[in-house]
Specification:
With 469 residues, this protein is of the alpha/beta class. It has 15 helices and 14 strands. The protein has 2 domains: 335 residues, Ribonucleoside hydrolase-like (Inosine-uridine Nucleoside N-ribohydrolase, Chain A, Alpha-Beta Complex), CATH 3.90.245.10; 90 residues, Immunoglobulins (Immunoglobulin-like). Helix content is 33%, strand content 17%. It has an 8-stranded mixed β-sheet with strand order 3-2-1-4-5-6-8-7, sandwiched between helices. The protein has a 4-stranded mixed β-sheet with strand order 9-14-13-11, with no helix packed on it. Strands 10-12 form a two-stranded antiparallel sheet.
């Protein structure tokens, strides 16, 4: 096994960038399901904005389904609003020929193959996206969970969970998540308790506030099916309830609206329909940024800071149930602090992709190697207390040959070690770190952040978790 690891490291160090990218496409995408109250942009344009950004990242996510659902401003969901989703999908169909040049992709798989397991870097056909657009639950609240309330969306969730696929399914709830609640109810009625637990453990939920209700009754949290899911299935269903990150996403978008106008709107067919904001910009986007495979965070550990914030496990705003939250201090300020830090890179990344949508050319992100290894998952390394460990990112690459700059930093909140590490010369690609003597048995999270100096100065990351003996 050791010889194989050394051989892999040697091969990675000697490969060209193109070869490394071809190797990396063997990685599978994360699976996501969107539940959105997308609709009339005179009422709530931010869902359409988030949908356009998602389409610009269709090579990074396996979009298992895009479901229309109830939300704060629509109970019941107006059937004609689904045409807005169709408009976004049609625009993707026009831009995907340019977007897929980013991955040097020259053809699409068959629809049957696309419905299997998609690999990172693959841009799906518009026919695939259309086939995965469907209706979820169009009424809100726990009162519409039960017999007679199945939907194409709830049936499809059960089908997805039954597939022979070990990857978790992330439910990004831009509106209400009661389509999932109905699927859980149906499985509860028709399968054994063991089978129900297996079903629940396939899913991860990231809700943008709680929108399984009307806005004017948003404080009546017992009305929502979300509370039922958190209460009844707390041991088997991972649930992130975001309050804070989505509001800041809206506000930062307003503050950076000039860049949206310059670099997003009017760029490609997707940019041509990117609407002006009303309340805030892309409030639903953190739900899939949390799952973004960019090397910064493992979405299964919500304490790790990423583009979708970071969370701690605790009491929710209903004062009755627990989940992953960031609504109270100090966690809210911690999460918002990271969001502010990452936002310029996040927006630049989106801007670069929209240039690809418009022109079929542009900049791509660097590829980070730490100690000869490239991975979008955290890199786990052993270290000894009191000893010096070397972390070397000097073999990192950029496809366009841009100059790279480096920044090493420590995310204390994800650690089991309670003290901030002092990192000397943290802008050098090669880091030597003195492991604290009292860190025995602890884990410490270090991030290597790498920017290029090309258009939009794109970023890539590698999280390193030191496990101290």
């Amino acid at each position: 096994m050791t010889a194989r690891i050394y051989l892999l490291s040697f091969l990675l160090l000697t490969m060209t960038t193109a070869e490394a990218k071809n190797i990396f496409t063997n990685e599978l995408k994360p699976r996501i399901v969107i539940m959105s109250d997308i609709g009339d942009c005179n009422v709530e344009p931010d869902d359409m904005e988030s949908a356009i950004r998602l389409m610009a990242y269709a090579d990074r996510f396996e979009i298992e389904a895009f479901m229309t659902t109830v939300g704060w401003n629509c109970d019941p969901y107006p059937e004609e609003w689904a045409k807005v989703l169709d408009e976004v999908v049609d625009a993707y169909g026009k831009d995907v020929e340019n977007l897929r040049k980013r991955s040097s992709q020259t053809a699409f798989l068959s629809l049957q193959e696309e419905s299997g397991k998609q690999r990172l870097g693959y841009w799906p056909s518009v026919e695939y996206i259309r086939s995965r657009s469907m209706a979820g639950s169009h009424r809100g609240g726990i009162g519409v969970i039960g017999e007679g309330y199945d939907s194409p969306g709830s049936d499809f969730l059960i089908q997805l969970a039954d597939e022979d696929d070990d990857r978790p399914i992330w439910v990004a709830a831009w509106g209400g998540a009661n389509t999932l609640a109905q699927a859980i109810w149906r499985v509860q009625q028709t399968r054994t308790e063991k089978e129900l637990k297996k079903f629940l453990r396939k899913f991860r939920v990231y809700t943008i506030t709680d929108q399984d209700m009307r806005y004017d009754m948003r404080m009546n949290l017992a009305y929502s099916s979300h509370q039922w899911m958190r209460r009844e299935f707390k041991d088997n269903l991972t649930f992130i309830w975001d309050e804070g990150t989505w509001q800041l996403q809206c506000e930062l978008g307003k503050q950076h609206w000039a860049q949206h106008q310059q670099c997003i709107q009017g760029h490609g067919a997707l940019g041509s329909i990117y609407p002006n904001y009303k309340w805030g910009v892309e409030g639903d986007t953190p739900s899939f940024l949390h799952v973004m495979p960019n090397g910064l965070n493992d979405p299964d550990d919500p304490t790790q800071a990423g583009w979708g914030g970071c969370h701690t496990f605790g009491l929710t705003a209903d004062s009755l149930t627990e989940s992953w939250v960031s609504w109270q201090q100090p966690q809210r300020s911690i999460s918002e602090g990271y969001k502010r830090r990452f936002y310029p890179d996040e927006l630049n990344d989106f801007s670069a992709r929209m240039q690809w949508a418009k022109e079929g050319r542009g900049n791509t992100n660097p590829t980070v190697y730490v100690n000869g290894i490239h991975s979008l998952k955290p890199l786990h390394l052993k270290a000894k207390a009191g000893k010096v460990i070397t972390l070397d990112a000097s073999m990192s690459k950029d496809a366009e040959g841009d100059h790279l700059s480096f920044l090493w930093w420590h995310q204390l909140e994800a650690d089991t070690y309670p003290q901030k590490l002092t990192i000397a010369d943290n802008t050098h690609p090669r880091l030597q770190l003195q492991v604290p003597q009292n860190a025995k048995g602890k884990k410490m999270h270090l991030i290597c952040e790498v920017h290029d100096d090309g258009p939009f100065q794109l970023v890539a990351y590698q999280r390193v978790i030191l496990e101290v003996k």
